[in-house]
Amino acid sequence: MATLASSSSIVFTANPSSSTSTSSSAARSLALPPRLTLSSLSSSTTLSSLFSNSPTSVAYSTSSRRVLTCIPAFSVVKASAAEKKKVLIVNTDSGGHAVIGFYFAKQLLGSGHEVTVLTVGEESSDKMKKPPFNRFSEIVSANGRTVWGDPADIGKVLEGATFDAVLDNNGKDLDAVRPVADWAKSSGVKQFLFISSAGIYKPTDEPPHVEGDVVKADAGHVGVEKYISEIFESWAVFRPQYMIGSGNNKDCEEWFFDRIVRGRPVPIPGSGMQLTNIAHVRDLSSMLTLAVENAAAANGNIFNCVSDRAVTLDGMARLCAQAAGLPVEIVHYDPKAVGIDAKKAFPFRNMHFYAEPRAAKEILGWKGTTNLPEDLKERCNEYVQIGRDKKEMKFEIDDKILASLKVPVAV
Amino acid sequence: MASMAAVQAKQPSFSVLPSSLSDFNGIRLTTSVQYKRKVLHPRGALHVSASAAKKILIMGGTRFIGIFLSRFLVKEGHQVTLFTRGKAPIAQQLPGESDTGFADFSSKILHLKGDRKDFEFVKSSLAAEGFDVVYDINGREAAEAEPILDALPNLEQYIYCSSAGVYLKSDYLPHFEIDAVDPKSRHKGKLETESLLEARGVNWTSLRPVYIYGPLNYNPVEEWFFHRLKAGRPIPIPNSGMQVTQLGHVKDLATAFVKVLGNEKASKEVFNISGEKYVTFDGLAKACAKAAGFPEPEIIHFNPKEFDFGKKKPFPFRDQHFFASIEKAKSVLGWKPEFALVEGLADSYNLDFGRGTYRKEADFSTDDIILGKSLVLA
């Protein structure tokens, strides 16, 4: 019999509380920062050596010549956007990253680039009935090309097509990515981009994870990052965390909405103070687009592909409740004491997992637009619109947790 | 009730000094006094364009931040006056400061003795002297800034030491300068001062530090940990120990203060100033141990609600996440912290606590309550 885990129960009404508002008093009205001067950009090799996986935490480069380094003037980014690229996106057929390729494709198409999406597997598979794949008509109607196949046979699948840039949004290790990378190299692809994962950072007492921090040497993604840096003249690596957005293949905010709309307690492991980073996928897409359009600046760099704010797990629950206009009851528990696998019980890591997008801001001039309070309202609207709030659901693991804590659940 | 306005008649030095390297607490600075010449700092990118030398007033300057800031400004060739009540010596040689460096500083630093709460005196004495720039390091209330503004209608810049404590508590962090502030916070005087500066139309700059640390810290931040580590005691940390906070070295803050001087990009801007990375409470305990050469400490987590500590604080940090983004200062000012956390704590330890100096005696009474020991009464 599991011992009573310590728990705290917070009843939180949906009144707008202390969560952020970006409004500020007139005294602090947004004086636009003065236009940044374009300083001499450090060469990409200098940057790549800084952002290599060295054991020391690396502060950003300081040129001995100029105070401001590596901040492109706005006009530099715009000029490059005029050049149209042929981009191939190799996309996974499932999981949290699937939606990245969808947004990226649409954004590139919107900017006038040519896009092909190669989705792993078969067009007729059941997996293609789920979002974002069931919305691929949006890519096609924007003049994008969608094909299916095995990345290991990519040469055959693409029959001699050529591309300027390739994004591998599929492989988690070198076995999966090597065929794509090798083919890209041999067919003259100039720029290779890879969706890695912020999960490869070693846990730290000093958050956030910043580009250059130590990673887990045995992580599959690390092998890929190393390989592409060796064989491509122009490469960049993106390390995402969690994301929300219409077309997502994997539940994120839905996990909270499922409980909140049904008036069920939200069981959160540990203290609820764990920091995580939940981005709207459009932020990831905009970062990737900047990298394609300003390949020279992106070259040789690792980018944390995340929003520019962290949120606590409790905070995420509260924000979802506010978005839904409903109260929330958060219940904390110790997974070990309850005897459950936290990974199955809860969709986020039970620890601080918090990276910041510093390289993207400094090197690409990227700006984050994720605004969880606002974005979650839109997500909640869709949640209700598709009828998920009315769907019959079982909460077996929740019930087990709550029973061990002796928390009553309104039927 | 006018206080004695004893402005010491030390001549401000605008003479050209020979360049000399002064190893000041680990940051090497070249001294050279030239009009309109860039001063180059060999270590890192401490670029400060010292245009004309300025007549600068620091409100405060003898306790912590100002000690370092005043030295940097004097080295830059400015004429620096400290407005203090004179309780502490105007110039005290710091551990690690060379004799020649200290002699140079103490021969140049000026003193305006007074109580800044005597607003009439502040106004008259400042008006009589005239200053180009005011660094308000110890101001807490808007009313304290008024007489300064009244006295100096041609003030080029009012540089204010505010606090990240003004931000409204949030689940969604880090705090950025655009974030909501809390008009009810303990630091609302700082907010009101910022608002006053804006309203008065003066060219102002406000820096918001988080937790400041470094040698001579009078706030028991690192000292709190060092006392326990030295005594071989466990470190009691409230709740999960996962709370994330942020420390900024005082010398990095002083550098930032110098960076905004005469800097048009800093005009009417607020900047968060702190360390590059944040740290958990548990992590901070370990970092202090590492910095000071102690073994990894035993950490005891406790629930503060289960104890009555009376008026004493069982732990020196706010029991919440509290950290701010410094990217605005980095990108707009080109400033960046020189000290990483363990390195900075080692600097503090080596120059202060490790030499046997500290501000507050160790008080383990709240620790003992937590650890369940009974207090021995005589």
From TrEMBL, chain A:
Region (Disordered): 1-26
Compositionally skewed regions (Polar residues) per UniProt: 1-11
InterPro entries linked to this entry: Epimerase_deHydtase, NAD(P)-bd_dom_sf
Comp. bias (Low complexity): 12-26
Residue ranges constituting the NAD-dependent epimerase/dehydratase domain according to the UniProt record: 95-305
Transmembrane segment boundaries: none
Protein name from the UniProt record: Chloroplast stem-loop binding protein of 41 kDa a, chloroplastic-like
Organism: Coffea arabica
Gene this chain is encoded by: LOC113733519
From TrEMBL, chain B:
UniProt-recorded Gene Ontology molecular function terms: UDP-glucose 4-epimerase activity
GO cellular component terms given for this protein: cytosol
GO biological process: one example: monosaccharide metabolic process
Any Pfam family matching the protein: Epimerase
Domain of life per record: Eukaryota
Domain called NAD-dependent epimerase/dehydratase: residue spans: 56-273
PANTHER family, per database record: CHLOROPLAST STEM-LOOP BINDING PROTEIN OF 41 KDA B, CHLOROPLASTIC, UDP-GLUCOSE 4-EPIMERASE
Name of protein: Chloroplast stem-loop binding protein of 41 kDa b, chloroplastic isoform X1
Gene from which the chain derives: LOC113727827
